[in-house]
Design goal:
Number of strands: 6
Helix content: 25-40%
Order of helices and strands: EEEEEEHHH
Shape: elongated
Distance between the termini: 32 Å
Strand content: 15-25%
Low-confidence stretches: 58-63
Largest sheet: 4 strands, mixed
Number of domains: 2
Structural class: alpha+beta
Radius of gyration: 16 Å
Number of helices: 3
Mean pLDDT: 79
């Protein structure tokens, strides 16, 4: 059974369906994700907290598989301003180093342009979340 990585429940996790699936769907197992099909679409959603994520493995530029969950963790930690040494994912391969550098660069550029980084269910006040890493 799949658990939500955000709230840890398994009862409200649904697999997302994209495109135009045959209706009706079993709403206890599936949720409509939209009509646009993309390799970047999340695969699962949580009806309890609204979190969406993907269990798919993604290949980076070097062709190595990296867990999309690890990429997501790195992105959130970098956006929160967590130092590289305290990330939840250990940057111990050239592939993860490359991913970290791209995410860090893009996050820094977004901040320089004045964009706010916001997370669903957290808003822009991330101080309470940052304290979890201290």
């Amino acid at each position: 059974m799949v658990k939500c990585p955000n709230c840890q429940t398994s009862k409200s996790v649904r697999k997302l369906l994209y495109g135009f699936p045959e209706l009706p769907i079993d709403e206890n197992k599936f949720e409509l994700g939209g009509c646009v099909i993309s390799k970047d679409n999340p695969t699962h959603t949580c009806k309890n907290c609204g979190y969406e994520w993907s269990h798919k493995k993604q290949k980076n530029k070097l062709g190595k598989e990296v867990s999309s969950r690890d990429i997501e963790k790195i992105a959130v930690d970098v956006a929160l301003g967590i130092s590289k040494e305290k990330l939840r994912v250990k940057i111990d391969t050239p592939e993860l180093e490359e991913i970290y550098n791209v995410i860090k660069k893009e996050t820094d550029e977004a901040r320089e342009k004045g964009y706010a980084i916001e997370f669903p269910n957290l808003g822009t006040d991330l101080e309470p979340v940052k304290k979890m890493y201290d």
